[in-house]
Structure formats: structure tokens, C-alpha cells
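Support case: GLP complex. Customer-provided input:
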Amino acid sequence: MEIIIRPNAAAAAELAARIIAKELQANPHLVLGLATGRTMESVYRLLVEQHRREHRDFSLCRTFNLDEYVGLSGDDPRSYRHYMNRHLFDQVNIDLRNTHLPDGRAADLDAECARYEQLIAKTGGIDLQLLGLGQAGHIGFNEPLSALKSRTRVKALTPATLAQNAAFFGGADQVPRRAITMGVGTILEGRRCLLLATGEAKADIVARAVEGPITSMISATALQLHSRCTVVVDEAAASRLQGTEYYRWIFAHEPEWAEFAQP
Ligand code: GLP
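Agent response - structure generated as follows:
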């Protein structure tokens, strides 16, 4: 795991967007795993800017989102399909047919989960998986006790997650109770993971996810098992980490990061 600490949320999002851009430039056929949430909005804004200013090309790239609420159609402004179209897909030259999210309205949800897994495999697997961090430490919607080998499936959302997403639905009681999410095992199969977390509210869970023991109670801790995981945080989210001196030293001295250390 590599931990990169940026001065503020904007700089953290910028670094994440630059990592994505570099991967896309190296491989136009990149299979991108995407995430939703407030944190990701600035990353998508930067990718849209790159597309407009630097002609960043998304025409050949394929995407798979982590999760979708059960019961919401893609037209519903609260669905993750709608979020992705609004924040990214409708604003860049991506072919919508190459963008995938689980179908939360499928008649047979278990069959839909199996179809999603098969589609990821058929596409050759995910090259770069972008991840946010829920306040209780979930990645995707892998709530506490999600098996570390879990696959795409339906999960019941915890009261904490319902509360975290209440604002988008006009109250916690309006948030769908279930979601389809890639499993922890599915996520760990991505060739590279990039987790972005910013703000003081994430400081405690970032420290537990990165430096704490691996536990299915906090699915993000499973990323410690991944051979290529980059965690980008701002100073506020890094404030409870123990090893910051070492993480800063690595970022400043590893040749791989030299180009990213420049503003
Ligand atoms: C939701 C998503 C997660 C995301 C999390 C963080 O729970 N399902 O994938 O990581 O929100 O959201 P935010 O960036 O708004 O803190």
C-alpha cells in the first residue's frame, strides 16, 4: 500500500485524476472501476476538464461501477447510474454502451449479480479500481462482516450508511434498504486500486483502514492484501495516521512519484 498525503481535498482529487489520466494515456482500452459519493465529484470534474482542455480520450475505455441501489431505475436522479451520467459519462466522449452498473431493478437480483461478475471477467478484469471510503469503512457497499472473499451480491445497508446517504433521499427512511455491490473479493481482483478519502470526518476510519488490523468489520482493511493499492488523502483525513513521516518520505523520494510531486 502507498499512502499519499496532499495539502487539501482539491489537491488530493487532482492527484487521483492525474493517476487515472496517466493510466488512460498508457492504455486507451483501460477497464476502469468507478465509485460514487461526494468525494468523487471533484475527480470527475477534473476528468471532464481534462477532456475539454487536453482532449483526454475516453472513447475506447470501459467502466464498471462498484454498486447501485436496489429498486432505482437509471432515470431516477438518486440512482448511481444517474450520478455517473451527470458527473462524467454525459460530459466526455465515452460510449454509454461501454459503461456498466449493476441493474438495481432486475427481476432476478442474484442472476443480475452473476451476470455482472461474468461481464467483468469477459472484459478481461478491472485495470484500475477507484474507491471512496464510507464513514464506517466500507468500500462499495461492503458493510461490516462482508466476507473478504465476497463477490457481487445484494447487501442490506446499515443504519449508519442509510444516515450517511439520507440527504440525497430526503431522510434516512427514504434510502433504499438494499444495494447490489461488487464484493471485497471482486474489488481485490482489480489490477490496481486507488482509494481517495478527504476531510476530518474520515480521519479515524482512514487510520483504521490503513494501519489497523485486517477485519471484515471494516472492508477497506482488505486493501492491505492488495499488491498495488494507492491511498490518496488530504491532511485532514491523514491527521490520525501514525506513520505520516514515512509516507511523506516515500512520496518525496520514490522515482515513480516524482512527476506527481510537482504542482
Ligand atoms: C457510498 C458509496 C461508496 C462511497 C461512499 C463515500 O456509500 N456506495 O462507494 O465510497 O458513499 O461517500 P462520500 O464520498 O460521499 O463520503
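The radius of gyration is 17 Å.

Case will auto-close in a few days if no follow-up is received.
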